[in-house]
Design goal:
Layout lengths: L3 H8 L1 H8 L2 H7 L5 H25 L16 H12 L11 H16 L1 H16 L2 H12 L19 H13 L5 H28 L5
Helix pairs in contact: 1-10, 2-10, 4-5, 4-6, 4-10, 6-7, 6-10, 7-10
This protein binds protoporphyrin IX containing FE.
Protoporphyrin IX containing FE (HEM) binds next to helix 2, helix 3, helix 7 and helix 10.
Length: 215
Amino acid sequence: MDSFATVIRTASHEQHMEAETSTFMSDLLGGRLGVDAYARYTEQLWFVYEALETGAERLASDPVAGPFIRPELLRLASLERDLAHLRGPEWRTGLSALPATRVYADRVRECAEDWPAGYIAHHYTRYLGDLSGGQIIRDKAEKTWGFARKGDGVRFYVFEEIPNPAAFKRGYRELLDGVRADDLEKQRIVAECKKAFALNTAVFRALGEEFPLSA
Ligand code: HEM
């Protein structure tokens, strides 16, 4: 039987491709969008990580989700530095969540409060993605909009306290394999992971509508 880390990865593979090839992501990575679109996307991430990381504090001692909560993953402070760079010191004033972002952040908050195992699905979908494909996005962003390498504007993608992401991901997969959940609960986590991908794709769709390429 496949390990749980493999099950969750395989189950979300198709949706991963869908997210990766969404119009907004393709345009962003293709260098076809302005820095404003990137800033708007970064703002949406702020809402998602605000929900994830407010929940993290409370879940640190939870028997199921607790082992996943690691301070070296926390992204909110980096996002805030990026936003100050992208939008200026008054970045909070203009900050607004798209409806799809609000739905996503609300679901994360709901899981953090009522269902720690479901929170793991959201944790996995974001942080393991950031540690993987996030590095491709950072590289593109630096080249397209001229941010300093690993500097302000792309700090969200830089895990200063994780010098070896591959090793970290291996450790993370071991945590997934050892998750304290029975088979039915594991199935529910996988379903929540698929939901997490769908919530991300919905945000991309909304961003794509806000930043269409003039044909
Ligand atoms: C254009 C955008 C993206 C690119 C280029 C990309 C690329 C990648 C790559 C190269 C990996 C590494 C696979 C491996 O370890 O062998 C990965 C893993 C992952 N990505 Fe993405 N990705 C993108 C978008 C996303 C999005 C939007 C999400 C979800 C929010 C996501 C979630 C994940 C997750 C959870 C993993 C870990 C899979 C696992 O090993 O269990 N990715 N991605």
